TrEMBL record:
It comes from Sphingomonas tagetis. It comes from the Bacteria. Residues 24-170 form the Aspartyl/asparaginy/proline hydroxylase domain. Pfam families: Asp_Arg_Hydrox. SUPFAM superfamilies: Clavaminate synthase-like (SSF51197). This is Aspartyl/asparaginyl beta-hydroxylase domain-containing protein. InterPro entries: Asp/Arg/Pro-Hydrxlase, IPNS-like_sf.
Length: 184
């Protein structure tokens, strides 16, 4: 569902251009994709120094800290401050042209469990297909989406451009519940 919080797609793209030359970390769950799916951590579990552990949610982690990369993405930082809820992992996720995320489920990633994964597309193409429960979800830069990713979902990037989303793991509170209730 699209949330009622408009973002500046051009400013997101500008932040991406400033930091995208950094070293991305390959997604560790390799059985869930074909091709290249990479992560650039912007916020991660406190105390984690290994790139893989910074790139992925760490079970049981309570405290989270901004990574130094976030300082180079001032607009993304301002977006995060607009989210009046506790944030856990925040990362850029890149699915390269011709790659696919195979159908899978992310257990516990739904509002009922108290933890949601929000998506803000930054760069995408017309031949990217994101599906949840087999239903296409068309997302555009400048939009913020809640997707119930504990349900089966998959992505095909049949476009010539890499698809990059800002992905935010957020704890559900009254503010976020109101955003979800107002979403469409």
């Amino acid at each position: 569902m699209k949330l009622p919080l408009a973002l500046d797609g051009a400013a997101l793209e500008a932040d991406l251009r400033r930091i995208e030359a950094r070293d991305w970390t390959r997604h560790v769950v390799r059985q869930n994709y074909r091709g290249d799916w990479d992560v650039l951590p912007l916020r991660h579990a406190a105390g984690e120094t290994h790139p893989i552990r910074q790139a992925m949610p760490v079970p049981g982690a309570i405290a989270h800290v901004d990574s130094p990369l976030l300082a180079g993405a001032s607009y993304i930082g301002s977006v995060l401050t607009k989210l009046r809820c506790s944030l856990r992992n925040v990362r850029l996720m890149r699915l390269t042209a011709g790659s696919a995320i195979l159908e899978h489920c992310d257990p516990g990633m739904n509002a009922e469990s108290g933890l949601v994964r929000l998506h803000a597309p930054i760069r995408t193409g017309g031949r990217v297909s994101f599906r949840v429960n087999g239903t296409p979800v068309v997302m555009a830069p400048g939009e913020l989406w809640y997707l119930r990713l504990s349900d089966p979902h998959a992505v095909d990037n049949d476009d010539a451009v890499d698809r990059v989303h800002l992905v935010i793991d957020a704890e559900v509170n009254d503010w976020l519940e109101a955003m979800l209730a107002a979403g469409q």
